[in-house]
Design brief:
7 strands; about 30% helix; about 150 residues
């Protein structure tokens, strides 16, 4: 579910394994309110603002896609996709991704690159809310799935 430490679990699994690469989405907060998300490249720790809550986006933001009040910035969105594709090309495994949700299940967001990740045959570690697990398995044709609970 929401705020169930899924990202914490993903980064913990990455740290424990000592191998692979991918992205965790780190909440950008203002007090107790989410203002957006930064994409943190796991292998480097570099964080890039990726998602902005409407009303808190920079002037002139080019939007790649949106869900609810959240706007995905075009350039970093494209860069994350390119980096994930480079991981496939380089045979990086496992590839970690945070998270597959309603946006992808509707054919938007990272849906295209997630299909490529699954098709690659590489091991993947992905974050999915409980409510979407069966739909993600069906959409991406996953056959070998191991579920890990959040912390």
């Amino acid at each position: 579910g929401i705020d169930s430490c899924k990202t914490t679990k993903l980064t913990s699994l990455y740290a424990e394994s000592g191998r692979g690469d991918g992205f965790a989405m780190i909440k950008r907060m203002a007090g107790r309110h989410v203002r957006g998300y930064d994409a943190r490249r796991l292998a480097t720790g570099v964080e890039t603002p990726l998602v902005y809550r409407s009303g808190f986006e920079p002037d002139g933001l080019e939007v790649a896609c949106a869900i609810g009040p959240y706007l995905f910035a075009e350039a970093p969105f494209r860069a994350v996709k390119d980096q994930l594709r480079a991981m496939i090309t380089n045979g990086v495994a496992p590839i970690y991704f945070d998270e597959i949700g309603e946006l992808e299940l509707s054919g938007s967001g990272f849906d295209d690159v997630l299909k490529e990740l699954v098709s690659s045959g590489l091991d993947l570690v992905v974050v999915v809310r409980d409510e979407f697990v069966s739909r993600v398995i069906a959409r991406y044709g996953l056959s070998e799935v191991r579920l890990v609970e959040s912390i």
